Amino acid sequence: MTPKRRMLNAYRGVFSDRVAVAPEFWYYYPAKLLGVDMIEFARNVPFHLALKTTFETFESEGWGVVFAGPPNDQVTSTSEERWIDDNTLETRCIHKTPYGELTSASRAQRDEPAWSLERPVKDLNRDLLAWEAMAFGGSPEAIDVSPLLKAREEVGESYLLEVWLGVPFFDFFANAREGGFETGIYDFLNPDFEPTLERLQSTYIERLVRLVNVLCEKTPFESFCIGCAWSCNSLLGPKLWRRWDKPVIRGVADEAHRHGRLLHVHFHGACMDTVADFTEIGIDCVCPFERPPGGDVKGLDDLRLVERRLRGCTTMNGNVHTVKTLIRGTANDARQEVAEILEAFHDNPRVIVGTGDQVGRETPEENLHAMIKEAKRLGELDHRQQQPGSGPLSSAMP
Q1: Confidence band for 385, pLDDT divided at 50, 70 and 90
Q2: What is the pLDDT of residue 192?
Q3: N or C: which end of the chain has fewer CB within 10 A?
Q4: How far apart are the first and last CA of the chain?
Q5: 391 or 320: which leads in pLDDT
């Protein structure tokens, strides 16, 4: 059974030969493994191939994304780069639209991915129409899917490659606002701005649904991914998330399922207050169910509660602590957390042993290998015991 098949089986609630184990290798560890800095990685290394090398090196399952975006003939963008010092590259952009110009800027360092210095929407009255031309100007039906298909072929069965659809609505809007999260919160709590947000939300849902429809008609990708930045209980909170982001995810899930495809949502930070919502929406897989202090899934008791709330309808991926356990802990610490996850989800195929968000580059290899090997060992025991009268997983542990 291939790594990709184990992941898909878990998403669908089907038992495999063993439990899938999928550390979230994103930017840091693949760049380290390939021996390139973060600027070189972002500019010259195909992301899907970097992940393939990393998952194959560690002999694990995994997921990754390929990015899709339609052309936009309403906007012309130009950029200018300059080195601030030997370590820092700044990029400034000018975006010309039928409704005026917008500017943005970012910086990247050799040891860190890019971050925003300047966001395009500074004044809502002046910049909103121009930003809408940037955000919604291109037609999803005009997307060129050939790069997606090429990436899918190159990845093969090495891991589950998904199409990245974007982020929830709050992140989508606030990421464009000067001031980011803080300014976005004030916008979303402003009753005078609510009709505009409702209009933008409706447009965003309609656009994502069209994109999913096009991708389903033109490609064989089995799964799509929605990420997050601030859209989580730790920052946005359950109330605003349910009001503005949950309808977006539901719309995408419904369209994907209409075509027989799957939806994976990345929801970092605290999640316990909205675990039942994941099942209600119909999300097929959610990650990463972080442990404190970043998240609120503390250990075995909370994992059992998560398992009950997901009701065998949504797959849990994650929960091995990326800092306390994998970076600062020992191999035994990693094995213990793996055992807790598999004990909580014993007799339930909807589990993937993963990490609580991205694996840091300073993570000792021995801890990663311990996590992966223990998940394979206990995952094989667990799946061999899927028969009436089998005891708890802990009884099979030494």
Answers
A1: low
A2: 97
A3: C
A4: 27
A5: 320
CATH 3.20.20.210 holds for 3-71+138-396: yes
Average pLDDT across the chain, whole number: 95
Look at residue 67 and tell me whether its pLDDT is greater than 50. yes
Q: Over range 248-259, report the average pLDDT.
A: 98
